[in-house]
């Protein structure tokens, strides 16, 4: 396996840091990754190694306000304005970069947690640029909940300013996640059953930080836009989708991934597969059963390649 990293200019010329894992031979397909909140793309090296061994390549960008991309902005903030549109556009820029270098290779999107929400918005606008997509550690809740949360975020922005970092928002969003896993070793036990992986997250200075009020407002506005089935119907109905998560992930409580898969199907998407893993928590690719998850992910990619959108789809599974 080989690895390089480079700076990619976004549409507004903001530099984005990208990690790239690849092999000697041209790839059978390319995966582009959209990571979660308060983490960064460098954490996906193990996935990159496994994908390369199976004949794929992985491109993973540091989202705005995250990882090394935050060197050209504010840690924990997409942008001063129009942040949601910009992070969607960043995926389009990455896709364009990949297409310039691999003109014939199919491209898949893998979005984790926050990245799965950005990924869904990207799919609504750019389905034709992809062969399929994987949504990991995602969620699906009523639009009304996001509207109420946005009111709180607006109040906190008024009280602290756009770059303020609200302890109240953090408590209401993440505060209860560890309760199901007492006694707790750390405040991030909800991420994985593997204590070594949790410790690596805790010790990483680019992980676990508190995001700004403006990012929360951008994110909550984005969640309101991707939740209605009539909006999800903008996704190409022939695009194969894989939804994966842990049954003990407090972000979705497992059951809300069933709701997400059902909403995607109601929106008309014909090939939606749902894989739930018993006892697993939020970060499946850093979980104790990560080898199983990675095998299943690669098997799904193989299946999607064998059954392209120009051919009849396999039967939906859940």
TrEMBL record:
InterPro entries with a match to the protein in the record: AB_hydrolase_fold, Hydrolase_4, MAG_DAG_Lipase, UCP037442_abhydr
Superkingdom, natural source: Bacteria
Serine aminopeptidase S33 domain mapped to chain residues: 26-288
Protein name listed in UniProt: Serine aminopeptidase S33 domain-containing protein
């Amino acid at each position: 396996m080989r690895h390089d990293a480079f700076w990619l200019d976004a549409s507004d010329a903001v530099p984005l840091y990208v990690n790239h894992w690849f092999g000697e031979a041209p790839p059978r397909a390319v995966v582009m990754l959209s990571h979660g909140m308060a983490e960064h793309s460098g954490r996906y090296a193990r996935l990159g190694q496994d994908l390369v061994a199976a004949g794929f390549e992985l491109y993973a960008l540091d989202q705005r306000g995250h990882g090394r991309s935050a060197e050209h902005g504010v840690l924990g903030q997409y942008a001063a304005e129009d942040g949601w549109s910009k992070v969607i556009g960043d995926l389009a820029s990455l896709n364009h970069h990949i297409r310039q270098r691999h003109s014939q290779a199919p491209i898949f999107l893998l979005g984790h947690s926050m990245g799965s929400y950005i990924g869904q918005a990207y799919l609504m606008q750019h389905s034709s640029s992809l062969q399929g997509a994987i949504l990991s550690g995602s969620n699906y809740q009523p639009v009304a909940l996001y509207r109420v949360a946005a009111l709180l975020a607006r109040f906190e922005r008024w009280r602290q300013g756009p770059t303020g970092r609200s302890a109240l928002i953090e408590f209401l969003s993440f505060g209860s996640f560890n309760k199901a896993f007492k006694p707790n070793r750390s405040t991030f036990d909800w991420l994985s059953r593997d204590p070594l992986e949790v410790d690596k997250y805790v010790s990483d200075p680019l992980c676990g930080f508190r995001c700004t009020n403006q990012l929360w407002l951008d994110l909550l506005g984005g969640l309101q836009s991707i939740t209605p089935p009539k909006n999800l119907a903008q996704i190409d109905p022939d695009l194969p989708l894989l939804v994966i998560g842990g049954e003990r992930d407090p972000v979705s409580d497992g059951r809300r991934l069933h709701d997400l898969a059902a909403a995607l199907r109601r929106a008309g998407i014909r090939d939606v597969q749902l894989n739930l893993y018993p006892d697993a928590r939020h970060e499946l690719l850093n979980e104790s059963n990560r080898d199983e998850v990675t095998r299943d992910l690669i098997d799904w990619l193989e299946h999607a390649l064998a059954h392209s959108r120009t051919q009849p789809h396999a039967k939906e599974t859940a």
